[in-house]
Each structure stands twice: as structure tokens, then as C-alpha cells.
Amino acid sequence: MEQHNGTEVTEFILLGFAGQHKSWLVLFIVFLVIYVVTLVGNTGMILLIKTDSSLHTPMYFFLQNLAFVDLCYTSAITPKMLQNFVGTEQSISFIGCMVQLLIYGAFATSDCYILAAMAVDRYVAICNPLHYPIVMSQKVCIQLLIAGSYVMGSINASVHTGFTFSLVGINVLLLVVFVGFNLLSTVSVIILSYVNIIAAILKMSSTAGRKKSFSTCASHLTAVTIFYGTVSYMYLESHSNNSQENMKAASVLYGIVIPTLNPLIYSLRNKEVKEALKILMLLASDTCL
User: Ranges for the G-protein coupled receptors family 1 profile domain (predicted)?
Assistant: First the structure.
């Protein structure tokens, strides 16, 4: 029987942040609070949209799924990171690392496509309001969500995970191709949508109409700017010679902080969500009394 010399990889050592051992308790508390806020905020957004009939529209259908995706991809990495702060063994098993990368990659990619679908939704609502109920029907929304988001996310994560753990040089090329395609395709859809949206808004004669149209897009534009700004920085930074600590900081912002911000962005800047929250709080107070 032919024998081969080699060592089977069973786990990876997690290096963490520079100086982590000196401030592990502070880091643990900070990221635990962020994670709890993420869980409460996104779960609350999902339940609010589900229970309030006034929010049963395509825009909030996508927002509900955005909250679900944010919950999933941050939960793929944050619990292990919290364990790493307080645990004695700062490592992750080979299988655990593979599963983590698969889940994180799938839902993070889905996030891109949901944001693009939300841009299309705003484009149809503002540029073709009379055809909005037909164009953005429930069937179309589900197709955009499943085919354009979850399927693309699963394909991207599966291919990338498979080649990453096969330890071949092609995985770097695939990373560039797949990440580049996902970013360029979704960003192109968002830019084209908003170019048409801005053109349509500028043609409006009513100042109130312009203000209302801009306000319906403000939350989405804020979320898109933060998300794609961070992703672009990570993608460009990975090809530079700068410090790895910068990459770690960007990864934390992208994977842990952004899912916390999205519910705040949409609840603080969205009039319909704020009204739904007020009604829910009044009903809760009446129930308590």
C-alpha cells in the first residue's frame, strides 16, 4: 500500500486582535452587547413587519428578509468570536471553519442581492407607480428573493468554500471572479435604479412629492452606502500590503456592526416603521394596563 507523508489539518488557531489578551473582558462585553442589540433589533423588525398589515408591501417584504439574512450571517461568526474571548482554547475545528464560511458566505452574498432587489422596488414605485402592483407582485418578489438572492448566495458560498479548502491556487482567482461579479452586478443594478429615480424625482413639479420620494429612498441609500463601502474596502485591502489589523477591523464592521445598524437605520428614518412601532407600543401598554 502506497503511503504519503503529510499532516492532516484538524483545526485552525484563531489569532484574534492584537493585544486581545490584555482587554479580553472589555472586548467580550462590547461585542456581546452589539450581538444582543443585533438579535433584538432584527428579530423585532421581522416580527413588526409580520404583525402589522400596513407593512405588508414588497419593500417591507425585502426588508424583512434583509433582517433575517443579517441575523444569519452575523450569527455564523459572532458566537464563536465571543467564545474565543473567554475560552482557554482559541481554535476552530476544520469542519466548524468550513460550515462557518459556508453559512457566512451564503447569507452575506444574499444581502447584496436583497439590497439590489430593494433598489429595483424603489425604482418601480417611483418611476412606474401605476404599474407597481403588477410589476412587483408577490410572485415576482418571491422569485427575486429566492432565485436572485438565496440561490446566488448558496452557489457563491459553495464554490468558494469548496475551492478554499482544497488548497489550490485557483481559489484566489475564483475569489476575485465571484466577489467581483457579485459586487459589480448588484452595484450596477442599484446605480441604474437610482439614476432613473433621481431623474424622475427632478422632473416632479411638487416639492412635497420630491421630499416624499427622497425620504422613501433615504434609509435604503444609507444602508447601501455603509454596506458596499465596507465590502469594497475589504476587497481592495485584501490585495494591498497594509496591516492585517485593518482587515480585521473592516471584517468586524462588515460582519458584526452593520447587521446592528440596519434595524436602526430603517426604524429611525422610516416614517411607516416609526408609526407601526408607536401603534405596537400603545397596544402593549394597553395590554399591560
Answer: 41-266
Bridging pattern class, strands 91-93 and 11-13: antiparallel
Instruction: Identify the burial level of 190 via C-beta atoms within 10 angstroms of its C-beta, where 0-12 means exposed, 13-18 middle and 19 or more buried.
Output: buried
Quick one: pLDDT band at residue 2, thresholds 50, 70, 90? very low
From the number of C-beta atoms within 10 Å of its C-beta (0-12, 13-18, 19+), residue 136 rates as: buried
Average pLDDT over residues 85-104: 80
Q: Output the nine-digit C-alpha cell for 257.
A: 456592526
Percent of all residues in the chain with a pLDDT value above 70, rounded to a whole number: 81
Domains along the chain?
20-288 (1.20.1070.10)
Report the half-sphere exposure of 214 (CA within 13 A, side-chain side).
Answer: 12
Q: With 50 as the cut, is the pLDDT of residue 1 above it?
A: no
